[in-house]
C-alpha cells in the first residue's frame, strides 16, 4: 500500500476515466487540461446550452464544480453545496451550512467559495465561518464538521479568519487553509483525517510572535529559519504577520510533496509590520511539506519584504518540461507579483523567471537566486512616498485559474493589469476592529483621487488571455478582453480554450492561436473557471456564472468598465446537441439611480467619507459608487432617514443578508456622518448615472 487510497489512485490515473473531474484542477498537476475532444475546433460553433440551474445567492461565484460518475458537486457563494445530475442539471440534493450573515465583513473579498474535494464517497468543503464539512456524496447527509480555526490562532484582537478556498486531499488527509491577512491573521493550514475529521497536523506559515513552539509541524523551521527574518517587536507580533494560504494547496504524487501557496503580510505596511527589517519568511512563498507529517522540506520566496499584497497563493501547477535538452518535473507559477516562475518541484531550486505582465516594482529577477531586483521607489513604506504600483494588490493574475495544453505546450493565464496607489498611514499603525488594517491610508489608497489621475487609472486597466510559452519564457499571443477580472481557463484535447468573461459572455477560443470560435450571452459576469466532463458518454462544458469577488466590491463603479452586468447566479452547461434556447429574459438594469434627498450637512461629509472608506468601501465601492453586486448605497432607501440608516448600519437590521452591525466600531454621530456623505455623493452623481443608462454600455461617458 503506497497510502494513496482508491480515490488517490483514481486521481493519479485521471486520464483512464476522462469523463470525471475529481479534484479542483482535474489532476494533481492542476493543469486544467481535459483530453476530451468530442467538442473541438471544427464543431464548437454549434455548441448549445444543454441546461442551467439558478442558484440561490446573488453574489460572486468562483467555484470549480467536481464531476464524479455523472454527478456534479458545486459549491456556491455563502459556502453552500449543490449536487446536480450532470446530464440534465436536475438538483439531487443541496446543503446549506447556514453561515451567519454578519460574518461577511470578516473576509476581504466577498463570501465566495472556490470548490470542494471528493474522497472515498464523501465531498468536503470549507465554510466562510471557518468550518470544514464532510458530506455523504450520495445523500448529502453530514458525516462530520470541524472548526478549522484553533483558539491559539485567534490570540490578539485583530485576528480574523475566513475559509473560501477549495480543500485538497493528499493520501487521505484533507488540507485546508484560510484568509484574513487584510484584517489581522497568522496563516496556517491544517490536515484532517478524511474519514474522522481528526486533526493530523498543522503548519503555521509565519513565526510565533514570541518564538515559542506552537506544538505544530512548523515549530522547528519557524524557530530555526523564519523567526530571524522578522523584527522581534514589529506590528506583526500583534497583528499575526499574515501569510494566509487562501487558495492553492497542491499534492504532487511525483515528488510526494504538498505545496502551499503563501499569502501577503499583515499589516501590508512592511515598515510597521517588521520595522522595515528582514525578508519575512514565509510570506509570498511556495512551501513544500511532507503529506504524512507536515514536515518542512523546502521553500522558495517569490516576494521578500512584501508590502504590495503580493500573495503567492495563485494556482500551483506541475509540468514535465524540456529545459536545455533535459525533461524536468517543475512547478510553474504566475503569482500576483507579475513574474512567471519555473521551480524544480523536488528541490525548490529556482530554474528561471520572467515577467509575464508589465511590472514596475522590480526590473527583473536575479538569474541565480530568483530574488527580485527592486525598484527602490516601490519600497514605499521605506521611502515614505506614494507608489503607483503595477501590478497592484490584485496582481497580474489572481485566483482565476490558468490552464496548460500538452498539445500546444502553452500556459494560458487569465492575465490582468490593475494598478494600485499605495499610500502609507501616517503617525504609526492604528488598527480598527472589523475593518481592513493595512497600515495604509484608506482614504487615499487604491484609485487615485484627482479626475486626471482617475482617467489615467481607467486607461491602465487591462484583462486578457496570455498564451505563455514556458520553454521560451515569453508571450506567444494574447486575446484582449474589455477589462480585468475575467474567469479561469479550461484547455481541452479538442484544441480549445474555454473562458467566461467579466462582461457576461462565455467563449471558446482556438488553443493554437486564440481565434474566437464561439460565444454565448450568460447575462452576468463570469469569474469562475469552466470544467468539462462526460455524462452518458457525451461531452459537456459547464461553468458557474455570477459577478463578484473583490474587484467590483472595492473598485466599485470603475469595475463597470470590464462590462456592465447584473448578478444572475447560475450553473450553465453546454453540449453539441443542447437546446438552442437562450437564458430567460430578466432585469438587466441593476441598481437604478433614485433621486436623492436634496439636502445634506456639508460639515459632516468629510468625516462621513473617512468612516465610509474605513468600514464600507471594501464592499460597497470606492467613494460610494457601487460595483453592481452589493447595494449601491447612493440609491438605497435607507439613506432617506436617519433612523432607517442607523437600524441597518448600527443595529444590524440586514445581518441575515450579509450586512454586519457596526455600533461597536462607530457611534451614532459617525454613522449619521456616513449618511450625509452618501447623500452628497448621490447628488453629485445622480445625473451622470441616469445618463449612463441611456448608452448601451451603461457606463458613464466620463469617469469619474
Ligand atoms: O490575504 C488574504 O488572506 C486574502 C484572502 C482572500 C480570500 O480569502 O478570498 C483574498 C486575498 N487575500 C487577496 O489578496 C485577493 O486579492 C483576493 C481576491 C479574492 C476574491 O475571491 O475575489 N479573494 C482574495
Ligand atoms: Ca491578501
Task: Write a short abstract of this structure.
The protein is α+β, with helices and mostly antiparallel strands and 704 residues long.
Which percent bin holds the helix content?
A: 10-25%
The rounded Rg comes to 24 Å
Number of strands: 39
Structure ligands: pyrroloquinoline quinone, calcium ion
The portion of residues forming beta strands comes to 25-35%
Mean pLDDT, as a whole number?
95
Structural class by sheet pairing and helices? alpha+beta
Uncertain spans: none
Shape: globular
Report how far apart the termini are.
63 Å
Spatial strand sequence of the major β-sheet: 1-33-34-35-36
Q: Can you count the helices?
A: 11
Q: Describe the biggest sheet?
A: 5 strands, mixed
Amino acid at each position: 500500500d503506497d497510502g494513496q487510497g482508491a480515490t488517490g489512485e483514481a486521481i493519479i490515473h485521471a486520464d483512464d476515466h476522462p469523463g470525471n473531474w475529481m479534484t479542483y484542477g482535474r489532476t494533481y498537476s492542476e493543469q486544467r487540461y481535459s483530453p476530451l475532444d468530442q467538442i473541438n475546433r471544427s464543431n464548437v460553433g454549434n455548441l448549445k446550452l444543454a441546461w442551467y440551474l439558478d442558484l440561490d445567492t446573488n453574489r460572486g461565484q468562483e467555484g470549480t464544480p467536481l464531476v464524479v460518475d455523472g454527478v456534479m458537486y458545486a459549491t456556491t457563494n455563502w459556502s453552500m453545496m449543490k449536487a446536480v445530475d450532470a446530464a440534465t442539471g436536475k438538483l439531487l440534493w443541496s446543503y446549506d451550512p447556514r453561515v451567519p450573515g454578519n460574518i461577511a465583513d470578516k473576509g476581504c473579498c466577498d463570501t465566495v467559495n472556490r470548490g470542494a474535494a471528493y474522497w472515498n464517497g464523501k465531498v468536503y468543503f470549507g465554510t466562510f465561518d471557518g468550518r470544514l464539512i464532510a458530506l455523504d456524496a450520495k445523500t448529502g447527509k453530514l458525516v462530520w464538521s470541524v472548526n478549522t480555526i484553533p483558539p491559539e490562532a485567534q490570540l490578539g484582537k485583530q485576528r480574523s479568519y475566513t475559509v473560501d478556498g477549495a480543500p485538497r486531499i493528499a493520501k487521505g488527509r484533507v488540507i485546508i487553509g484560510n484568509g484574513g491577512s487584510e484584517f489581522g491573521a497568522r496563516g496556517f493550514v491544517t490536515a484532517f483525517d478524511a474519514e474522522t475529521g481528526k486533526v493530523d497536523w498543522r503548519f503555521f506559515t509565519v513565526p510565533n510572535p514570541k518564538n515559542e513552539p506552537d506544538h505544530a509541524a512548523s515549530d522547528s523551521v519557524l524557530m530555526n529559519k523564519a523567526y530571524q527574518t522578522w523584527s522581534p517587536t514589529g506590528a506583526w507580533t500583534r497583528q499575526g504577520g499574515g501569510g494566509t494560504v487562501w487558495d492553492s494547496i497542491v499534492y504532487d504524487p511525483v515528488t510526494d510533496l504538498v505545496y502551499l501557496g503563501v499569502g501577503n503580510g499583515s499589516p501590508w505596511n512592511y515598515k510597521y509590520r517588521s520595522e522595515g527589517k528582514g525578508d519575512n519568511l514565509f510570506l509570498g512563498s511556495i512551501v513544500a511539506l511532507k503529506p504524512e507529517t507536515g514536515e518542512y522540506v523546502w521553500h522558495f520566496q517569490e516576494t521578500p519584504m512584501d508590502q504590495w499584497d503580493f500573495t503567492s497563493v495563485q494556482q500551483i501547477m506541475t509540468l514535465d518540461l524540456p529545459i536545455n535538452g533535459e525533461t524536468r518535473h517543475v512547478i510553474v507559477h504566475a503569482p500576483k507579483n507579475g513574474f512567471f516562475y519555473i521551480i524544480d518541484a523536488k528541490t525548490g531550486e529556482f530554474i528561471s523567471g520572467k515577467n509575464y505582465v508589465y511590472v514596475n516594482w522590480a526590473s527583473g529577477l536575479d538569474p541565480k537566486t530568483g530574488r527580485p531586483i527592486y525598484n527602490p521607489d516601490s519600497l514605499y513604506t521605506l521611502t515614505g512616498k506614494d507608489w503607483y504600483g503595477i501590478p497592484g494588490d490584485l496582481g497580474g493574475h489572481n485566483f482565476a485559474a490558468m490552464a496548460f495544453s500538452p498539445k500546444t505546450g502553452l500556459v494560458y493565464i487569465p492575465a490582468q493589469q490593475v494598478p494600485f496607489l499605495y499610500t502609507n498611514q501616517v503617525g504609526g499603525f492604528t488598527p480598527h476592529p472589523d475593518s481592513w488594517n493595512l497600515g495604509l491610508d484608506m482614504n487615499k489608497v487604491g484609485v487615485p483621487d484627482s479626475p486626471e489621475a482617475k482617467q489615467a487609472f481607467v486607461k491602465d486597466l487591462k484583462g486578457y488571455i496570455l498564451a505563455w510559452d514556458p520553454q521560451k519564457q515569453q508571450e506567444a499571443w494574447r486575446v484582449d478582453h474589455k477589462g480585468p477580472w475575467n474567469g479561469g481557463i479550461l484547455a481541452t484535447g479538442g484544441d480549445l480554450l474555454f473562458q467566461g468573461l467579466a462582461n457576461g459572455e462565455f467563449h471558446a477560443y482556438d488553443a493554437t492561436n486564440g481565434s474566437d470560435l464561439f460565444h454565448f450571452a450568460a447575462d452576468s459576469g463570469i469569474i469562475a473557471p469552466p470544467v468539462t466532463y462526460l455524462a452518458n458518454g457525451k461531452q459537456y462544458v459547464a461553468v458557474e456564472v455570477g459577478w463578484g469577488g473583490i474587484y467590483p466590491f472595492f473598485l466599485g463603479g470603475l469595475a463597470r468598465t470590464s462590462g456592465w452586468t447584473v448578478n444572475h447566479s447560475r450553473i450553465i452547461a453546454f453540449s453539441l446537441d443542447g437546446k438552442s434556447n437562450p437564458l430567460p429574459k430578466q432585469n438587466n438594469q441593476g441598481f437604478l439611480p433614485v433621486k436623492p434627498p436634496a439636502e445634506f450637512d456639508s460639515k459632516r461629509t468629510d468625516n462621513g467619507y473617512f468612516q465610509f472608506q474605513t468600514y464600507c468601501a471594501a464592499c460597497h465601492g470606492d467613494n460610494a459608487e457601487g460595483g453592481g453586486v452589493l447595494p449601491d448605497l447612493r440609491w438605497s432607501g435607507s439613506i432617506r432617514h436617519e433612523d432607517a440608516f442607523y437600524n441597518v448600519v448600527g443595529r444590524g437590521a440586514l445581518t441575515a443578508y450579509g450586512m454586519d452591525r457596526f455600533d461597536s466600531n462607530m457611534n451614532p454621530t459617525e454613522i449619521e456622518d456616513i449618511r450625509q456623505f452618501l447623500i452628497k455623493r448621490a447628488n453629485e452623481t445622480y445625473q451622470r448615472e441616469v445618463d449612463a443608462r441611456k448608452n448601451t454600455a451603461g457606463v458613464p461617458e466620463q469617469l469619474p
